[in-house]
Amino acid sequence: MAEFEWARLRRWPDAEAGNLFASDAADRLIADTATAVLDGMTRDEAVVVGDSYGALTLWVAGVVPEGGVARVHQDAVVAARALDANAERLGLSGAYRSCALDAELVRGARVVLLRLPKSLDALDEIAGVIAAHADPAVTVFAGGMQKHLTVAMNDVLARHFERVDVGLARQKARVLTVTGPKAAAAASATAAESWPRRQFHPDIAPGVWVCAHGGAFAGTRIDIGTRFLLSHLDEAGPDARVAVDLACGTGVLATTLALRRPGVRVIATDQSAVAVASARATAEANGVTDHIEVRREDAGDGIPDACADLVLLNPPFHNGSALDLRVGRMLVAAASRMLAPGGELWTVHNSHLDYKPVLRDRVGPTRQVDRNAKFTITVSTRR
Question: What is the pTM of this model?
């Protein structure tokens, strides 16, 4: 196999710095572990799942002989854009295609390269799809940095496969070699427990179904910040004709607004494929697909300027396990851009995080609507 130029990869359009890299030891260990199995195969027999910036996808495209295209599923839209940019740089733009997490992604696949997700639910859904629809002789090379790996991941994989072999660690990375899809796992693909899962919440008027694919924030529950904002939803932009649920997650806010105000056009947007699939399922379960447009974008970057009368925002404040307010600030700036003059941004955030200066600076006059022990709700009016 040909040598691959790992150093030429970039993270762009994600943040870049001297200490941030587009590939890591886990990518290289997965590639080295899979090399012998991939030898003699064609690209269309290989699938990559969870590729952060395209390193594994482009490694397959660069070292496997011609023969169709590799398939890849990435959750973050920024990851997909980074893959496309890196592919253009390396002259490999036509060597792969991006797919949803479904049967088409893995149908006939003999090798799957998987960056292990932190969420066990996400891993359960991914493993179930592979076991049910890939070639019965498929080999899954599932890896990550050791600090993110847990024994529980082995248990999840063992529910769907006969063998989970733990490889030796290298440079603080490790790979699990997974083989033998279980017949019971294939049968479960059409069972009642398949994804997305759903739960009915009768306490949220007029009664709301919440649907969630594996790895969606809060799953089928309604997180306490969103629940707090829902208690004031009827006060938000009462005359709004266009509303945006920014970083929509499972689409609880968008769906509830559509149920209560069928005359409002609602846009639900998120950068996560899991979130977008969950929000679409939530809208469908509640019969409001005609009133909600669900979009996968980076901070709603495809939504026109000054088009919305109301934006609802429950911003994330962690990057992994680390406190990181940059995403929240970026979303506030995005909300400001898409709001028409006089439009309202309703934000719920952790009370110990002082968003008010950012909201006043980026959007306009901001007042507190409510506050409890954990969360604060504010409304900011676009200048």
Answer: 0.94
